[in-house]
Design brief:
21 helices; alpha/beta; 5-stranded parallel beta sheet; globular
Length: about 475
């Protein structure tokens, strides 16, 4: 029997899914997801991304089964898998959403495009974000975004399904070479979790959005926390935009939530604005947007500086607390992300690309288009944006004035007095010894806080090491 193939990628839902709707109008459909080892071997993915994906796939498969369908999951390269399916039973056409992913996924799509041409196979791709392929200029870009977001969301269609094998046990992360720890407090994947998060934000938490998203204390609940569900396509951007606008229209004038939701809609617009940059210039993942900055930091790479940053041992308490939070939750608010990139780029003088790959592993909601554009913007290599240098001491005083965030994520600092908490290297050595933190029978003391390492033209705290000291 001839059929249409629906290739699911980062669009793990049946609601507002144009490929599913249009493919089902033409012929029976087979739903496919491919676990591609080459993509999971990249340096910008981690165990947490794969585990979130697995949870989302299970949720998608359940949604398809409820409608009489199923999800066929294959492991391998995209072209070999498609060739194998073609040999089993040639399909009429392939349907999928457009993807603005990393360089590897871009090259994969080019290879699939060549394979489709060789087989005379139509490949229909649909936009799921306000990103325009082969954009000539941005004059009409906002109008395009507004029009796409205003179109009605698509209901799951009634389909004539091609039977898919019962979902097998998915590969474990280790078999794909993923050895990173899975953050124990990260968000869980799947559309049902995404819908619950969306409702919670729209009807309750959005009141704290404006004014609450900058501080790492308030941001975990003030922010929408929808970014991972959008990155994996458990929710469509359009349904989020429209649900937000409906809630805005329903709220009475003077309701504090109105300001939060209005600000949130503007952020959804910027979500696609930054993705468009990578769509138009995929080399942004590797090369400076302004080539005049080539060679600025590359030759000065310092492994010790990078190790201190990635281990959360820079000596700046707010920086190290942010890294500790990432390791436990896979999430951090935007201002603190920008501060990490600023610290890496300026006082530590690290090139943005390896730092960006490490941070991509840390961010559960890693979205390449947003991530790499922001890495270059915060590192000052765009040639367009004003240079932004975040002072980690000022940021701590502004956004964690009582030190609750730092003390929560860095237990060794819990007994440090407020006046020295954000600059502990200034604390008198005698007081350091008095305020050590007891762990079992040992005292844990910040080591080398009174020492200063030097970078060219800069002074900074020594790298922090938490060591056991006698009582």
């Amino acid at each position: 029997m001839s059929y249409n193939l629906i290739w699911f990628k980062r669009d793990l839902r049946v609601h507002d899914h144009a490929p599913l709707l249009y493919a089902s109008r033409k012929a029976p459909v087979l739903c496919l997801f491919i676990i591609e080892p080459s993509l999971w071997a990249a340096d910008d993915v981690a165990t947490q991304h794969y585990q979130f994906l697995r949870e989302s796939l299970l949720d998608l498969e359940l949604a398809l089964r409820k409608r009489g369908g199923g999800l066929r999951i294959e492991v391998g390269g995209a072209v070999p898998v498609l060739q194998r399916l073609w040999q089993e039973a040639p399909f009429l056409a392939m349907y999928s959403h457009q993807e603005t992913g990393n360089w590897l996924s871009f090259q994969r799509d080019l290879a699939v495009q060549r394979w489709c041409r060789e087989h005379g196979l139509p490949w229909h791709e649909f936009a799921q974000f306000g990103v325009v392929r082969r954009l000539r200029d941005r004059d009409a870009w906002k109008a395009h975004w507004d029009a796409l977001m205003a179109e009605p969301c698509l209901e799951p269609p009634a389909c004539d399904w091609i039977a898919a094998p019962k979902l097998a046990i998915l590969p474990e992360p280790q078999t794909l070479g993923l050895i990173h720890p899975d953050p124990p407090q990260r968000q869980r994947g799947g559309r049902r979790q995404g819908i619950e998060t969306l409702r919670d934000f729209l009807f309750d938490r959005c009141g704290a959005y404006r004014g609450g998203i900058s501080s790492p204390l308030s941001a975990p609940t003030a922010c929408s926390r929808l970014s991972a569900y959008l990155a994996f396509g458990c929710l469509s951007l359009r349904e989020v935009v429209q649900a937000t606008r409906r809630q805005l229209a329903a709220l009475p004038r003077g309701d504090a939530r109105r300001a939060g939701l209005t600000a949130f809609v503007s952020r959804l617009y910027w979500h696609c604005h930054f993705m468009q940059k990578l769509e138009s210039e995929p080399e942004l993942e590797f090369t400076n947007l302004h080539r005049g900055y080539d060679g600025l930091r590359e030759a000065d790479w310092n492994p010790a500086h990078f190790q201190a940053l990635s281990a959360g041992q820079t000596g700046w308490p707010l920086v190290d607390a942010c890294v500790a939070m990432l390791q436990q939750t896979g999430w951090l608010n935007f201002r603190m992300r920008a501060m990490l990139v600023s610290v890496a780029s300026y006082p530590l003088w690290l090139h943005w690309q390896p730092v960006g790959a490490w941070l991509a592993q840390q961010f559960l909601d890693y979205e390449p288009g947003i991530h790499w554009s922001q890495m270059q913007m915060q590192a000052g290599t765009t040639g367009i944006n004003t240079t932004r240098v975040y002072n980690p001491i000022k940021q701590a005083r502004d956004h964690d004035p009582h030190g609750h965030f730092v003390r929560h994520w860095l237990p060794a600092l819990r007994r440090v007095p407020n006046e020295w908490l954000f600059e502990p290297w200034r604390m008198p050595l005698k007081l350091q010894q008095q305020r050590g933190t007891r762990v079992g029978s040992e005292w844990i003391l910040p080591n080398r806080w009174s020492n200063w390492n030097r970078l060219p033209g800069r002074r900074k705290p020594g790298f922090t090491k938490y060591v056991a000291a006698p009582t």
